[in-house]
Amino acid sequence: xxxxxxxxxxxxxxxxxxxxxxxxxxxxxxxxxxxxxxxxxxxxxxxxxxxxxxxxxxxxxxxxxxxxxxxxxxxxxxxxxxxxxxxxxxxxxxxxxxxxxxxxxxxxxxxxxxxxxxxxxxxxxxxxxxxxxxxxxxxxxxxxxxxxxxxxxxxxxxxxxxxxxxxxxxxxxxxxxxxxxxxxxxxxxxxxxx
Length: 194
Fold this sequence. Notes:
- The chain is an alpha+beta fold.
- It has one domain (50-189).
- Helix content is 30%, strand content 31%.
- It has helices spanning 16-70, 76-79, and strands at 97-103, 110-118, 123-128, 131-137, 139-147, 162-173, 179-189.
- Strands 1-2-3-4 form a 4-stranded antiparallel β-sheet, covered by helices on one side. It has a 3-stranded antiparallel β-sheet with strand order 5-6-7, covered by helices on one side.
- Strand 1 and strand 2 form a beta hairpin.
């Protein structure tokens, strides 16, 4: 005959305390993972902002350099005048404005190009024949400097042989919530002068 044991076997499984400890450990693990994912996303956004801002700055400096290389072309000698001309106009003040004339190579003959820094709007603008467009935003400082043939700074237009622009942009926050700031400098020689 079958005999049954007198004591009941204990059911296999976890106790309530064991289950709660497992859930607590899993929660701590998931919180740590999500914090690292959030941190990685923050760094990604910051780096993406840096790339966008520096690309915008480099594009602006490249355009500024191309325009300076065309300033004064065609030369006064080509046009039949004996007077030397470096391409910079009387509106150039080397404070907030650099204005030049030259053939931009766009088929529109000689154009006037004006670069303007507007501190109140925190922008650098480029205007071709009066048609202005904002080239760089969030500009905290910008300086234009003219240099003579010896490399000394000058504001006398007839003596200017090269022009340098330096500007700073603040855009966004880094991972530590500090403002992101970038400074870039570009310089070009005016080729159509002595």
